[in-house]
Amino acid sequence: DAGVKVVSGSTGWFQQHETEMREKCEKEGKTLFWSSNFSLGVAIFSAVNRYLARIMNNFDNYNRVKIEETHHIHKLDAPSGTAITLAEGIIENIDYKTRWVMGDLTNPDGSVTKGAEPRPAEIKIDAVRRDEVPGIHTFEYDSDADCIRLTHDAHSRRGFALGAVPAAEYT
């Protein structure tokens, strides 16, 4: 309504308002720029994730694929939008993975809410809520012989701003 460009990095907010925002922006010729994460480091991490998934498509012995995301105790949604985006990047590039499922949620008090156990074609996403963690995402490919694990660990929220500001300027 204020005539400004809409830049959103909030998965929960966007899910609730996506249709309304898209219609409003299209009707009024406004700009909508959405990403599950604006961190430049996560953008690079996501590209590595998709590249590795293309490679792993040829190695189905690494069939135990999982993601773990850790965030601050105030985060309301689980799994995070970034974890979902990472899972979707894997699914798009690996023939033997077709969907993701919510795994275990480690609550701020340390208790664990058990999630789904993944079927062979599924990627399990575990979520951890602790302290004031800005965001840690890990994906792994496990086989009987070894495990490949990569992690992006945000030290602060600064990385999100470093990506969001150029996105707003671009739109």
Would you write up a description of this structure?
- The chain is of the alpha/beta class and 171 residues long.
- It has four helices and eight strands; from the N terminus they run βαβαβαβββββα.
- It has helices spanning 11-28, 40-56, 81-93, 158-170, and strands spanning 6-8, 32-34, 64-71, 99-106, 112-113, 122-129, 135-142, 147-154.
- The longest helix is centred in the first third of the chain and has 18 residues, at 11-28.
- The protein starts with 5 loop residues before the first strand and ends with a helix.
- Strand order across the largest sheet: 5-4-6-3-7-8
Tell me the radius of gyration.
Answer: 17 Å
Q: Note poorly predicted spans.
A: none
**Total beta strands:** 8
Structural class designation: alpha/beta
- Profile the largest sheet: 6 strands, mixed
Q: Identify the overall geometry.
A: globular
**Strand-residue fraction?**
25-35%
Q: How far do the termini sit from each other?
A: 17 Å
What would the average pLDDT be, to the nearest integer? 90
**Pattern of helices and strands:** EHEHEHEEEEEH
Fraction of helical residues: 25-40%
Annotation keywords:
171 residues; alpha/beta; six-stranded mixed sheet; 4 helices; globular
